[in-house]
Amino acid sequence: MLLAGLQSISQDLYEAYSVDGATAWQSFRNITLPLLLPQILIAVLFRFAQAFGIFDLIAVMTGGGPGGATEVVSLYIYSTVMRYLDFGYGAALVVVTFLILIAAVAIASFLLNKYRAKTSGTI
User: Fold this and answer.
1) Helices (H), the chain
2) Which of 34, 63, 89, 123 gives the lowest tally of CB atoms within 10 Å of its CB?
3) Domain spans in the chain, listed from the N-terminal domain onward
4) 8 A C-beta contact, residue 55 and residue 42
5) Nearest 5 degrees, angle CA 65-CA 70-CA 75?
6) Cβ neighbourhood burial of 47 (10 Å; 0-12, 13-18, 19+)
């Protein structure tokens, strides 16, 4: 995703900015980073959701690891419900996890809308 975003940035912007005397760091900070911000935000959001959803690989490989070192949220919920039969606490964990994911999506959506409003010239 980031490579596609980098390839979509016009080289004319970099050339014009270098003619004005900008350094490589200034080009990155003022051209590359602002134009890649939507792709970075979406990539981080996907990785965040995937981190909450990983279960099978850790369950098969380590089962939570030595002393819970590799235990993730989904594996903890599974062991709470299936191993300890604590359905109420497990349901509460699922709801809290869902709310955290919804909050992350809402923040990402807010930031994307703010970026679009800033770049389109409207408020």
Assistant:
1) 2-8, 11-19, 24-27, 33-53, 56-61, 73-78, 87-120
2) 123
3) 54-123
4) no
5) 95
6) exposed
